[in-house]
Amino acid sequence: MAEALRLQRFTMVDLSPHFNNKGLTLPENREEGDLRGLGDSLPAEDLPPAGVFENCGVPFLMPDARWPRDNLELEGQELPLPRGRWARAHFLGTSDLASFEAEVAVVYAGGPPEPKRLGFSAFNSVAAPVYGERPGPTARRLRTRYKDTPMDLRLWHQTLELDASRELLALRFEDLPVLHVFAITLEGPGEDGGEGP
């Protein structure tokens, strides 16, 4: 079962065992960044510090920029989640190119997976979000191994509705490596809801 941290009706999933990409850096480890395969990254000092922070009323676990990996690049993997009956899954992520959406199979106990679409606007988009996301934290620079270039780079808060009558087991992602997920929080169906029986 996936590790998680619970706060009221929200459960923040520990994604660190599944991270496969390095997108956040500090000045002292800037050479490790490789969000897009070009040696670049988001400056962590522009974003919330590692640990729990809130966006639009939803708590997320911000990864630590000192870790060797800090986000999940979508490459066809199946991600186990805390078993339970959940109303929504909240994602903190972005697209490192243009705006894209990927197919996500929501795996429940019993019955076939339910297909969903997970979309993130481009991280450097200045327009309205393409897929109905809410704005998340914004970095003010693009960091390369040699310098920081001023520009606004956005993480996005996307939400998928789930079937709270069924027990959630996992998410199976499409292979689309331009999409990156930094955090996932599951929301229970009621004010004090959470993992179901």
Tell me the quaternary state. single chain
Task: Give helix % range.
Answer: under 10%
In total, the number of strands is 15
Strand fraction equals: over 45%
Q: Largest sheet, if any? A: 7 strands, antiparallel
Radius of gyration: 16 Å
Task: Describe the global form.
Answer: globular
In DSSP terms, counting alpha (H) and pi (I) runs of 4 or more, how many helices? 0
Structural class: mainly beta
Indicate the topology:
Elements: E1 4-7, E2 10-13, E3 24-25, E4 42-43, E5 51-55, E6 58-62, E7 72-75, E8 78-84, E9 88-95, E10 100-108, E11 114-120, E12 134-143, E13 148-161, E14 168-173, E15 175-187
Parallel strand pairs: 3-4
Antiparallel strand pairs: 1-2, 2-15, 5-6, 7-15, 8-14, 9-13, 9-15, 10-11, 10-14, 12-13
Give a short summary of the structure.
By secondary structure, the chain is an all-beta fold. Helices cover 0% and strands 51% of the residues.
